Amino acid sequence: MDVLDEGLDRYACQLRVRRLGGVEAQRRLRAATCAVVGVGATGGAIAEALVRAGVGRVRLIDRDVVELSNLQRQVLFDEEDARGHRAKAEAARDRLARVNSAVALEARVADLDGQSALGLLEGADLVLDGTDNFAARFVVNEACHALGVPWIYTGVVGTTVHGMPIVPGRTACLRCWIDAPPPPGAAATCETEGVIGPAVLVAGGFAAAEALKLLAGRPDEVAAGLFMVDAWTREARTLAVTPDPACPACAGRREHLGRAADAEELCGQEAVLLRGAPPVDLPALARRLGGAGQVGPVSPALLRFTPREPAGATLTIFADGRALVRGTKDAAAARGLYARYIGA
Amino acid sequence: MPRVQFTRHLARYFPALRDGEFDGATLAEVVAAIDRAHPGLGGYVLDDRGAVRKHVNVFIGDDLLRDRERLDEPLPPGVTVSIFQALSGG
Fold it and tell me: What is the CATH number for B34?
């Protein structure tokens, strides 16, 4: 169905923005497919903006379920979703279907890792990053190189927002400016440092605006480089990140794609063992986790952490990088908890 | 004298830390001055070999420092040095 058949009243305001490109731009949006990886806070804001703008098909990818503590910043969910522990991808689909019924919505309750990424992202014209961990972002970066599709990085912690559009072959990629994911415990996360909802909306707004430029056929107007803004102080900067001639991802090397995340369900136990992370500075991690739950005991070999939620979960982090996540048998849920609190 | 901007998240570990001017003609000298003022902060920026840690970003002005091991280049007069790391949350 052509966008003109739907009637343009719904999009009248954005059609008046000449820089976007009018009816032709609206047609391009209608013909486009976007994949949003992680539809919690930032990803939820992005997905809502894309659906309202009339992007034709939006794929919603998330491995997690809705919890009460999400509602402060995750705009697609409500108390009923939290009570029912609904899969975020499905709850987001149902909410967005009520926003714009002309958009084809695909819910994928799935863990994006090195083995699943290409299948989950295939067919997308643009990938939006709503994840909360670098392991997934390094995979997305390589997958988008392999598929030849642009993606938009966003990260939010506290009141600070980072964002960068990445167009393979044209701009710097994630790997051009970050050599490696931070070691476990070295990265601030929303669980350890907190986050305010308005910062998430800034990030979502930034990403969605860049998405509109790319999808509407205005790639020359994409703001290259790293966008940084503090939603509290209103400081904003754009820093130049130029392609690194030595970047392995730009050169086509696949170091993250094709590798499954290393997780093992422990037989007879409600627990998953995660491997593959680099060694951990346990005293530094203990200091960081202090506000997010109960830490202890800590020894030179391991740290035990009981997060405030979900109830019944504990994480035992070993100095050599292994992590034992109790309270679940599901590898994706275990990795989600690890990413949420340990941050790698 | 270079002006240095820090990621806000360092305030948790170095509560007295503020953006400001730190003495030094090279990045190595500036990081040493930062570490004198805030003991331990140098170890956040540099690894045991004295190279910028892989997950830490340093911008000289608006340009990303590419060679993490060459910290002895003269800094432009009055330049702003930004020290931060990519944000994980979303």
Answer: 3.10.20.30
Options A190, A247, A250, A267, the catalytic residue: A190
CB contact under 8 A, B62 and A240: yes
Q: What CATH number does residue A273 fall under?
A: 3.30.310.10
A143: enclosing H helix or E strand: helix A134-147
Tens-place pLDDT, residues B46-78:
998 999 988 889 999 988 898 889 899 999 999
Q: Do A239 and B88 touch (CB under 8 A)?
A: no
Same domain, A225 and A308: no
Residues of chain A with pLDDT under 70: 1-5, 185, 260-261, 266-268, 344
The residue to which tokens 């991690």 are assigned: A285
Whole-prediction pTM: 0.84
> What does pLDDT average to over chain A?
90
Interface contact B82-A41, CB threshold 8 A: no
Nearest residue to B75 via CA among B14, B30, B41: B30
Distance from CA of A23 to the nearest CA of B (A): 33
Is the residue at B77 inside a domain?
yes
**Inter-chain contact B90–A178, Cβ cutoff 8 Å?**
no
| Polymer length of chain A | 344
What's the rounded Cα separation, in Å, for the pair A125 and A28?
Answer: 11
Same domain (yes/no): A302, A170: no
Domain with A319, as residue range(s), is 264-341
A180 touches chain B (CB under 8 A): yes
| A190 given a catalytic annotation | yes
Q: What is the pLDDT of residues B12-54, one digit of tens each?
A: 778 888 899 999 999 999 999 999 999 999 998 999 899 998 8
| b (16+ CB within 10 A) / e for A302-336 | bbbbbbeeeeebbbebbeebbbbbbbbebbbbbbb
**B63 vs A40: CB contact, 8 Å cut-off?**
no
Residue B90 inside a domain? The answer is no
Classify residue B22: in a domain, yes or no: yes
> If we measure between CA atoms, which residue out of B14, B52, B57 comes closest to residue B31?
B52
Residues of A within 8 A of B86 (CB-CB) are 134, 155, 162, 177-178, 182, 187
**B87 reaches A (C-beta below 8 A):** yes
